[in-house]
Specification:
This protein has helices at about 1-25, 30-45, 45-55, 60-80, 80-95, 95-120, 120-130, 135-145, 145-160, 165-195. It has a domain at about 130-185. It contains 10 helices and no strands. InterPro entries: GerD_central (IPR041262).
């Protein structure tokens, strides 16, 4: 009897333990299902509204600003460190990377240069540089350079063969011819009116 009781108690404990483990595994949700559920919630109007409310909270805004300052400081420290300098030096050795980087910065550089060209202080510096005797000598030397002359000749030839340039020159010549004819007619009319009065 004791044996039967122990056997029943033991089987009862095993059954409870087995069922308890199955319940635990059934309760634990799958990661992908949880992820999908969260994404679905965030896509709803209520989810969007909740995010907007959270982003509107002053404490969250302050935390984001602090995080931005930390990010900025980290980037500055990374760029100015020896490892950062070595990384950028190696990265710019790759012509494709250098080209893409230059293209991405081109618009900002153009804005900066245009702003500098309007700056009187910058203009004065450029004038000083151009009036420097060494700079004048360098420019003259470059202009006498065979490669520069060949490049200049190529640019001039391309410009003259351009249909737009040809159209502009033709327009200018036509206007000049019309002005000359108009002036000649006036002088002829003035001359004939003087002859009639005499």
């Amino acid at each position: 009897m004791k044996r039967t009781f122990l056997l029943l108690a033991f089987s009862y404990v095993l059954t409870l333990t087995g069922c308890a483990q199955q319940e635990k595994t059934a309760v634990q949700p799958d990661y992908d299902q949880t992820k999908k559920m969260v994404v679905d919630i965030l896509k709803t109007d209520e989810g969007k509204k909740a995010i907007q409310e959270v982003m509107g909270d002053e404490k969250v805004k302050q935390q984001l600003v602090i995080d931005q300052q930390i990010v900025k400081k980290t980037i500055e420290e990374t760029l100015t460190s020896d490892k950062g300098k070595a990384f950028w030096k190696k990265a710019f050795e790759d012509p494709k990377f250098a080209q893409n980087f230059a293209k991405s910065m081109q618009e900002e550089h153009e804005k900066l240069l245009k702003a500098l060209m309007k700056d009187p202080e910058y203009q004065a510096m450029i004038v000083d540089i151009m009036q420097n005797p060494e700079m004048k000598k360098l420019i003259q030397t470059e202009m006498k350079n065979k490669d520069f002359r060949a490049h200049l000749q190529k640019v001039i030839t391309e410009t003259f063969s351009s249909p737009l340039f040809k159209a502009k020159i033709e327009d200018i010549l036509m206007k000049a011819a019309e002005e000359m004819q108009g002036g000649k007619k006036k002088s002829d009319e003035e001359g004939s009116s003087e002859e009639q009065t005499a």
